[in-house]
Design brief:
The chain has eight helices and seven strands; from the N terminus they run E-H-E-H-E-H-E-H-E-H-E-H-H-H-E. The structure holds NADP nicotinamide-adenine-dinucleotide phosphate (NAP).
Length: about 250
């Protein structure tokens, strides 16, 4: 069984690997054997140091994921450096909180560009490489708001609902090339993204009271799902959105 999850020598590209869930997943994939390209808009020395301490290789690629102009170069640089691209984790994402009656066009465009448009075009560029290679894995980071409405985060809900749809569509079209496209829907994970909620005494109590596991998640909680969806253990899993939520959706 152990071999099913072995990722020795695989090349993984993880966006937003500096902090939070992306860092946890990048480190988990390296623990399973991957060399990693970490793409983001600020250096990620802690991620790099940890991955290199495991004897794996790490490459930082500087990119603003709210724009699409460097996406092809990111994929080309990955292939030029490591020779291939086996696993793409579309993790970089932002959230903007504002009442729906006030919600600004900027808060709409910034979130949709980063969470949805760049996710699609990076997946497309990666899938072209994976098709030529004979296969690959794309893992999108969805959300509870791929299933639910949420409050005060309309562009985020729109983008994460789109991530669920894009995941299923790409799974349908790419399965024949041995490319599996799936998503992880994290529940409430303690990161920069949820800092405002954790600090809000009313919302943090409301949220915690609905989590059967009785605790907020941590980035480490996502490692197992990511390794599963990146490995041959999931070769017949297509278009699935795997909730890692301490039971939130079951409540
Ligand atoms: P986070 O720590 O804020 O991580 C977001 C990552 O995306 C950071 O590394 C950030 O880089 C990067 N990023 C943001 N904008 C970028 C841009 N324009 N260009 C390049 N990189 C950019 O929060 P997180 O919770 O780990 O979020 C990671 C993903 O999980 C997001 O897609 C989020 O929507 C999703 N998610 C989170 C939760 C949760 O409860 N935390 C639940 C469901 C889904 P910098 O830090 O350098 O800005």
């Amino acid at each position: 069984m152990t071999n099913l999850f072995n990722l020795d020598g695989k090349i993984a590209l993880v966006t937003g690997a500096r902090t939070g869930i992306g860092r946890g997943i990048a480190e988990g994939l390296a623990e399973a054997g991957c060399n990693v390209v970490g793409a983001g808009h600020a250096e990620m020395p802690e991620t790099k140091q940890y991955i290199e301490s495991l004897g794996r290789k790490f490459l930082y690629y500087d990119i603003d994921m709210s724009k699409q102009d460097k996406i092809q170069d990111l994929v080309d640089t990955t292939v030029k450096t490591f020779g291939r691209l086996d696993i793409l984790v579309n993790n970089a994402g932002i959230i903007r909180r504002e009442d729906v009656l006030e919600f600004s066009e900027k808060n709409w465009d910034d979130v949709i560009n980063t969470n949805q448009k760049s996710l699609f075009f990076l997946s497309q560029a990666a899938a072209r490489v994976m098709k030529a290679q004979g296969g690959g894995k794309i893992i999108n980071i969805a959300s509870m708001l791929s299933f639910q409405g949420g409050i005060r985060v309309v562009s985020y809900t729109a983008s994460k609902s789109a991530v669920a749809g894009i995941t299923k569509l790409m799974a349908n079209e790419l399965a024949k090339y041995n490319i599996q496209v799936n998503a992880i829907a994290p529940g409430y994970i303690a990161t920069n993204n949820t800092d405002a909620l954790i600090k809000d005494p009313k919302r943090s109590v409301e949220i915690l009271s609905r989590i059967p596991a009785d605790r907020w998640g941590t980035p480490e909680d996502l490692k197992g799902a990511a390794v599963f969806l990146a490995s041959q253990a999931s070769n017949y899993v297509n278009g699935h959105i795997l909730a890692v939520d301490g039971g939130w959706l079951a409540r």
